[in-house]
Every structure is written in C-alpha cells, then in structure tokens.
Amino acid sequence: MISKRKSIPSDIEGSNLTKDYENNLITEDDSEEKTETQLEDDHGFLNFGFNKSLLESLKKKGYKNPTPIQKAAIPELMLGRDLLGQAQTGTGKTAAFALPIIEKLEDNNEVAAKVLVMTPTRELATQVADSFKSYSSESRNFNTIAIYGGTDFRNQISCLKRKTDVVVGTPGRIIDHIKQGTFKINNISCLVLDEADEMLKMGFLEDIEWIIDKLPEEKQMVLFSATMPSEIKNIAKKYLNNPAEIKIKSIKKEAQLISQKFISIQRHYKLEALKRILEIKNEGVIIFVRTKSLTASIAEALETSGHSVAVLNGDIPQNQRENTVDRLRKGFIDILVATDVAARGLDVERIKLVINYDFPFDTETYTHRIGRTGRAGRSGEAILFVNRREKHFLRNLENSLKTKIEELEIPSNQSINEKRMDKLTKDININSISEKNEENKALMIDILDTLKVKYSMQDEEIAMAAINLIVGNKPFFIEEDESWINKQNIPDRDRFTRKGQNKSRGSNKKSTHNNSGFETFRFEYGKVNKIRIPNIISSICSSTNINGRAIGKIQVFNDFSLVDLPKNLNRDTINKLKNLKIKSY
Hints:
This protein has helices at 10-13, 36-41, 52-60, 68-78, 93-104, 122-135, 153-161, 171-180, 196-201, 205-214, 230-239, 252-256, 270-280, 292-304, 318-330, 363-370, 391-401, 413-430, 441-454, 459-471, 533-543, 571-578; strands spanning 25-28, 83-86, 115-118, 144-147, 166-169, 190-193, 220-225, 244-248, 258-264, 285-288, 309-312, 335-338, 353-356, 380-386, 406-407, 518-523, 554-556, 561-566. The longest helix has 18 residues, at 413-430. It has 4 domains: 10-251, P-loop containing nucleotide triphosphate hydrolases (Rossmann fold, 3-Layer(aba) Sandwich); 257-411, P-loop containing nucleotide triphosphate hydrolases (Rossmann fold, 3-Layer(aba) Sandwich); 414-471, no CATH class; 493-578, Alpha-Beta Plaits. A hairpin with a 4-residue loop joins strand 17 (554-556) and strand 18. The protein has 22 helices and 18 strands. The strands form 3 sheets. Strands 1-8-2-7-6-3-5-4 form an 8-stranded parallel β-sheet, with helices on both faces. The protein has 585 residues and is of the alpha/beta class.
C-alpha cells in the first residue's frame, strides 16, 4: 500500500473523527450549519499535514474548510487504512480520496502508476482526472491520465508509457490495456472504486473483480458509494482489510441550496411548458429525458425557438461529448438536453437549473439529476414535470427525501413579456456608451450626425430605429393562447371518441384574434407528426369548401395545431373538420 510520508498531527489522530478502530464506523451529520465565528476558528486543511504545494493549490481553488466527508476520510486514508465510504454526489468525496493520494505521492519518481481509480462513466473519469490535475497544479512532479472507451487507444498507450502517478478510467478500457500489456499494474498500491453502486447497476461487477484479482495483493483499497446495497457490502467484506467505515447521514445543507419545484403538466403540453420556462431562465440549464431520441427532438425544437442548445447522450462520440461539456462550461452553449447515463458525474459551475422533463425512475436518479446544480456551496434550482398518473410517485419521492416539493405555475404570457422587456432594457443599458465601446464612440457620433443632417431624423426617431433593430421583425410580445395552462389540473373527461379521436377537435371556439370574423379550431396533429403549415392548409382546402385565402392564423405546437377559420361555418363543414386527417408530405 502507499507508504505514509508524514505522520498525522496528534490533534487529528486523537479527534472524534477517527473514533475507536474497534467500532470502525465513523458517522458525520452534514445537516449542521456552522456560524461565521466557528468557521474562522477552524484550521481548515492545515490540520491534515499537507505539503505547501498542495495547500497552495487548495487556496487557489478557494477551498477553506473541509466538508464532513473530507474531515472523516482524509485522516484514515493518510494512515493507510482501507475505507468504505457512503456519501451522496456533491459532498466533496473526490477531494476526500484525491488529496491524501497526492500528498503521499509528492516525491514519487517511479514511471509506472501507483494509484488506479475506477469510475462507471467516461464523464466521471474525466471529471475525477481533472480534479487530480487541479489539486496537484502546484506539484511539478505529479501526473494523472484518464483512460476510457471512445477515444484513441494509441494516444492512451503513449501517455501510459510516460511517468504516471494516477490512472483514472472505466472498467472496460482498463481491462483492454491490462490484457494488451500497455498498462503495467505491478506497482499499484492503492485502488479507488468511485460510485461503486452505479458500476454495479451498469453490470461491471465481474470486470471489477477481474481487475482486483490482477492487482498486487498488498494495496490500500478505497470504496465510495452513494448507496450501500448488499453487493457493495459483499465486495467490501471480500476485498477490504479492516476498513474504516464512513457514512454521511444526510446532505440537508446541500439540499437546502437547491430550490425544488414541480409543475403539473399533461404529456402533450410538456414541450410548450418547457419553452415557457426557458423564456424566464435559459442560461446554464440541463434538461433530463429518458431516451436518446427525445434528446434530439427536444434540442431541435428549442434550437428552432432560438436557444443555444446541445445534446448529450450515449450515441454522441466521446470527443464530441467532451467538446460539448467544455462549450457549456465556457458559455458557448446555454442549454443541454441529456440522458441520465451521459450526464453522470457532470460538474459545470454554470448550471443553475435542472429540468426533469421525464419523471426519474427512482429517488436516487432524481438525486443525481438535481445534484448537477447546487454543488460545492452554490445555489441552484430543480423543476420536475409531473402528470396526473405520476402524482403518487411525487408523494413517494417527497417521503423518501423528507422534503416538500412545492408546486410551480407555468409562466404566463404576462410574466414572459415582462421578462422580455426587462432583458431588452438591460441589454440597451449594458450597450450604452462605456469604456468598453469608447473606441467606437467617434463612429457612433458620425452616424448620428449623418442621420440628423442627411435624413432630418430627430433623437427620438433615431432611438426608436435603434431599438427596432434589436427587436427585429418578429412580434416582441408573446400573444399565444394560454388557456391550456389553467386546464392542467382539470380531469380529462370524454376526451376521446370510440375511434380514439379527440372530441374537442374542431370544437374550440375561443378566438385568439380581436377580429370577430374568426374562430380558433384545434387539430390533434403537430410537430411530432411532422406536420407543417402547408400540410394543414392543403388538407383543409381539399376536404372542405374553405378557400386557402380565408384561413387565418395557424400555430403548430408539438402535439397539436391551432387554426383560425371563418366564423359561422355550416354543419357539414364542421363535421368534415372534426374528422379531418392532416397528412405530412
């Protein structure tokens, strides 16, 4: 195992964090909040005996005081003990095992890797490797590499031939390198299994045991898991030697940083509700869906609406996935539509909102989803879409979390328009004459003089024209029919005929125009049916005696369309509209 380079200060060894080794179980309650005075009295990371370069790295990252999992785990790992830790995502467990490893390998000069960290996904492997690199940024002699499928095998071989301290990877690719002889594991003195429960869910148990059996018998083993099923306990019992057991009882303080809300929404209105939410908050958003195909369709719909959006799912090549996350981190992308597996371990500071478009399969999935925001003391928001059939799942979720999830209203036209106006005025204010555009001031004055002299424009006219350029040709305020919003909690009664067609088809009489010559008709065909406006016009004209020029406003939504048609149509035409089949071409 890794030799202990430094002894632990006596005040740490004798603290209540290490407890009695006979009990082995160390518990820490993360729900307690410290006052500012208590935080000032803490010695932070100095008590662990870390070297100067490691402390300097932590200082640059803004780390002042260790989290509960770090307080409990670091002393044990510095002593060289095996460890079994249970902690949710976002509690700082990566630093809990990474910092002792970096400290102990500060003077390592051997070429072959000394530490192996296994993770369930490529994204988490990249994140953990980046954390090691970040924590060791002030150490000139410390090297970490990540190996996983979907990337160049030869490049990984080249990296493994150079001096390496820590290898972070997924089980499948680790096995590939071991079998090829490109990953020398004879010197591995520490093995870390990160998110072990997730690796079991993904079917990696046999791979994990195969790798463990190939490693040197004498090694330190560290196992972290969000949950503790019997399979994890069996692995710990089989492979860990008298481990220190650490359990973080709760993450209430972290959860309090995340505002959790739900929206009651019928399935066929979900996309429209999503668009309205993104009108209010559209920077640093992750939208979770269940299927790969849905990530693409939703992203396409949002992109059409003018959002900066990208997709993250298992079919996306690894290099593209890494590029997508990097673009999200740098602000080139505002919205990410992702599946659960693809977004596992994703940690981007910009993420302020998580939207559960599809209801999560279980409490743990929900926890991991919303854990993409509100990390490391940052605040965040999570919104859950819930239909009528899922209401009892919502109650079960609340019971499991011991948290009340409050209901949130779908943004109305008024709130959206107020947001648009607020953003417009702020943008104009930001772009007013300031130091950053002082260089263009002469050009602006020249343009103003030209407009006043050559075109006889007044100041107000020039200002109005400038705002018009910003607003564009499209209507600035939203005027869509929002009556459906108030119907989300009304039971669906007699909604379908025996043929399975909607009775309301052709019966919605509410007009969206002030023009009394029109009535609005609803047809249960939309974007999911690959329907476009020309399809609607053609189908109406060919099936009725309505002239195309007599058709008014047409709105195509995800699952339905609204069409304004002449008022007082005869009964025969109404019946034809009720049975109208709109074909896509």
